[in-house]
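User: I'm putting together a teaching handout on how multi-component assemblies are represented. Below are the sequence lines for each component of a complex, exactly as they appear in our records. Could you produce the 3D structure of the whole assembly as structure tokens, so the students can see both representations side by side? Please keep the chain order the same as the input.
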Amino acid sequence: MRFMTTPDNASGTPETPAETAADAAPAPTGIAAQDWAQAATDPQYRAAVVDLLGALAYGELAAFERLAEDAKLAPTLLDKSELAKMASAEFHHFEQIRDRLTEIGADAAQAMEPFVAALDGFHKQTAPSDWLEGLVKAYVGDSIASDFYREVAARLDADTRQLVLAVLDDTGHASFAIEKVRAAIDAEPRVGGRLALWARRLMGEALSQSQRVVADRDALSMMLVGGVADGFDLAEVGRMFSRITEAHTKRMAALGLAA
Amino acid sequence: MRFMTTPDNASGTPETPAETAADAAPAPTGIAAQDWAQAATDPQYRAAVVDLLGALAYGELAAFERLAEDAKLAPTLLDKSELAKMASAEFHHFEQIRDRLTEIGADAAQAMEPFVAALDGFHKQTAPSDWLEGLVKAYVGDSIASDFYREVAARLDADTRQLVLAVLDDTGHASFAIEKVRAAIDAEPRVGGRLALWARRLMGEALSQSQRVVADRDALSMMLVGGVADGFDLAEVGRMFSRITEAHTKRMAALGLAA
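Assistant: Of course. Below is the structure of the complete assembly, with chains in the same order as your input.
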């Protein structure tokens, strides 16, 4: 296993597809061998999972709301329906995660609350000004969510992991966005420069809001850095962000958006 | 069978539940005994069904968009998720109807286009100014849609009817809205007066936009009045609107919103 800690120099030099963020994720930790009933006996782990599910749930609900909003920018009815389809898929993810929160005895609204400011802040700072920006945002958001779910799955007990992987499995509705963006750049190459800056801004906002969350939520952060079960490793959270950033940069390059 | 052509005098005198818009709908006509392949050999019937499905498809897509928008008015995250759930259900109705249009060889976007102005006009004229207005609109919209689907089902060939009934069967996500509205009126009775006026305005706009559609779309209108298969009956479309209005008035009265 190899950690990619230098995302910047990877954008111009695509490597083999095997070396993606997913494959570079750390091997399952001790907690991964446990089920929820076992793992939840540790109150700190339990709090971390409630935090994680709260963040994911509100992330999905906010994504629903924003995709539905951005669908208004669509130039045709069928384009609109494609974004509406993604929005609807996000809503169903929200439902799954909310139901799981209820199942483990947590109050879903209360679990989501700590993440409202950061996620609303992200969306407020990144309201697309046109349809192409909306498409790039849909694609980038979908991809970062996939990467994050995949990263975090390895750190979870078997039951929670199963939920996260189920949601992940239903992600990837954004492929239509790639084609549209590619076609727009082919038709007018200077559009690429503008969208490259936009994609960079999206990632910058996502990272800055994530860091805000990490700073605020101790239990969640410790789990993300592998702290709860396996001893602290603060450098690991940085590496996780790096892997996600690098995967993003590669995807943008593949799309013709070298940042 | 009895036609209720005087909706106004029914609001204060609830009748037996059996006498709803659904039961007062006309008996299936000759076309109801045919399947799509048979019925569609009549080009006027085929055009009418494409129109109908186009109107329903865009109606669902526009409802999705507006419910997602109105979800922003929700006072709590769980209230927001309830409206998002309705929005998502409308999107799935849209998908079913769009797929059917494709299946019968029609261009879905083209079929929807003639109804965009009327439906967008309706939503533009009826943007709720607060959460309670949003809830009343969700409930009224859902109910009117149910009534209309049920009315129109009787006029369709077996295959199209099956689709319309399947969508109808999945309608009725608005019951949460009733409880919330009732509780708000109990807590502050004068809210009822404002919401009663609001519900009246919703129905007025719905009717005026429907009449615009009926005036524009000959084939659709003729089917709605039973014209295609069974000879013209222009009075029947008026009676259909009356039945739907009456059912609406009764529902509002039951909700404590005597208009």
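A couple of points students might notice: The mean pLDDT of chain A is 83. Residues 43-70 of chain A form the longest helix (28 residues).
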